[in-house]
Amino acid sequence: MKRKHFLIHYINKYKWKYLFGIITLFIVDIFNLFIPQLTGEITDGLQTHSLDMGGVLSIVLKILFVGLVIAIGRFFWRYFIFGSARLIEFEIRNNMFKHLSGLSTRYFNNNKTGDLMAHFTNDMSAIRMSIGPAVITSFDATIMTIMVLVKMITHIDMKLTFVAVIPLFFIAFGSILYGKAAEARFEAKQQAFSDLTDQVQESISGVRVIKAFVQERKELKAFAIANRNNMDKNMRVVKLQAIVMPLLDIVIGISSLITLLYGGYLAIIGEITLGKFIAFNQYIGMLVWPMIAAGESITLFSQGHASLNRIKDIFNEQSDVFDNDNVKDIQSIEGTIEFKDLTFFYPESSYPALQNITLKVEKGSTLAILGRTGSGKTTFANLLLHLYNTDQNSIHIDGNDICEIPLNTLRENIAYVPQDNFLFSDTLQNNIAFGANTNDINLVYDAAKLANIHDNIMDFPENYDTMVGERGVTLSGGQKQRSSIARALMKNSPILILDDALSAVDTDTEEKILANLKKNRINKTTIIIAHRISTIQNADHILVLDDGKIVEYGTHEYLLSLKGTYSTIYETQQLEKQLENE
Ligand SMILES: Nc1ncnc2c1ncn2[C@@H]1O[C@H](COP(=O)(O)OP(=O)(O)O)[C@@H](O)[C@H]1O
Ligand SMILES: [Mg+2]
């Protein structure tokens, strides 16, 4: 979608509704014009005694009819224009979410959650206001002004019209200045709101760390600052309005005084009738609103414009990981993985997270990866999932370059237990069945049994219907890990990656899970990332990483015989175990 035509595309879809809305608006405005005229007719008729009660009644009936048309018309323009604006807001928001979910990990690493949330809330309402109420206001203001002026000139008096209207132009001019001043303040207000959202979001997700480090006071202070900033920025908007509104009253007042004086004079010398004098005053009253509205719609448009630009930035953001043209029609994956002299830098990073990795994992075998924090283990998993782009020909799966495998096929065929296992605020059953295309309870049971979490779940008050997370029970670290493992096993994929997924599980449970895996993963590729040798010693091959490089590779026995890094780690851990047992 091209930048310039962004909104047009949406508005075009509802052009008929907009047109109907504007036509009804037009009709309402025309009918509005009759009321002062009719009041004037009553006044004149009464003054010249040419009206009897029946005549008054018939004019009153006319006024009633006009009022009815206006009321119905107002319903329709609201329905058509506000309704379209809501629908467009709904569609843009949907599309924005869809677009966002297609963006790569890099985007989410670089953008704050609070900012993104503000785009979905504040910016979307600003856009809605500019394509709904602002459209009405500006059309109404223009049509109304022109029609009232014409009516005043033709129906009453040209000179009087000119004299009375001059101050009103000051209002229009002032409104434009006000709009400009308001825009800058509005921008600041939106930013302050974003910052506040961010602050709240971080404090809430980080509440455990904050409590553990007894930093509540610091958080309170930071929150108070963000909150004050938000209030200050809102206050600046309020102050501006507080100054402008009385000024407006003064100009309106002056305008009315002029009308009264000059119009009174014209009525006395008999140039206009009393009825016209009264009608004229009402017309002047009808002009005030469009003048203010002009300013208001300018503000709304500029706010909407600012918000639209921010949102367009999201839409213009392209995912850097996507299916290229050279992607092959691959539907399934066997599970042979090969790295060929892979070196990988994270975007915007100056040192390689992985360096010269050459390695083959045969289908059906188990590879274990061991290494210090920061040695590149998680990066290994990230690259297999194609969360980041790699050089061509550096990773092959079943002999196909990873760049040529459709992302969906790739990810559907890899079951992944991330290091920071995340569970949704949903039932355990739905969490475990999350990646599978069924939530058959028997399959959920099987997966949970393999992950050794079934018995725990049966102890929960509502078993598999127990809610997890913010709206339900709090699981222990080990329970979370095992639920994530169950979720991955339920997918029953040709490739399984466990990223430090057993770190919070005790050794007995770990042994049981590993034994289950051994049975369940026959003929399927499994990659286990761990830092305990007990977790990995039975793997077919063990890869020891340090600083992104392969330092040792082989079976447990072979690596021990090398008497290098692996055997040192092994001895240290054996010693620790002995000390624990004593
Ligand atoms: N998103 C990222 N952007 C930039 N650098 C990263 C990113 N994620 C990890 N790194 C860096 O890459 C290196 C390897 O990290 P990682 O694979 O997470 O290590 P491990 O899982 O072994 O602890 C570390 O130096 C880390 O700081
Ligand atoms: Mg890691």
Order of the strands making up the biggest sheet: 6-7-8-3-9-10
- This entry's quaternary arrangement is single chain
| CATH homologous superfamily classification of the largest domain | ABC transporter type 1, transmembrane domain
Named at the architecture level, the CATH assignment of the largest domain is: Up-down Bundle
Number of helices: 20
Structural class: alpha/beta
Helicity range: 55-70%
Distinct bound molecules: adenosine-5'-diphosphate, magnesium ion
What is the succession of H and E elements?
HHHHHHHHHHEEEHEEHEHHHHEHEHEEHH
First CA to last CA: what distance?
69 Å
- Tell how many strands the DSSP assignment holds: 10
Description:
This protein has a 6-stranded mixed beta sheet, sandwiched between helices. It has 3 domains: about 5-315, ABC transporter transmembrane region fold; about 330-415 and about 495-580, P-loop containing nucleotide triphosphate hydrolases (Rossmann fold, 3-Layer(aba) Sandwich); about 420-490, Rossmann fold, CATH 3.40.50. It has 20 helices and 10 strands. The chain is about 65% helix and about 10% strand. The two termini are about 70 Å apart. With about 575 residues, it is an alpha/beta fold. The longest helix has about 55 residues, at about 215-270. The mean pLDDT is about 85. Helix 6 (about 135-155) runs antiparallel to helix 7, helix 7 (about 160-205) packs antiparallel against helix 9 (about 215-270) and helix 7 (about 160-205) runs parallel beside helix 10. The protein binds adenosine-5'-diphosphate and magnesium ion. Adenosine-5'-diphosphate (ADP) binds near residues 346 and 379.
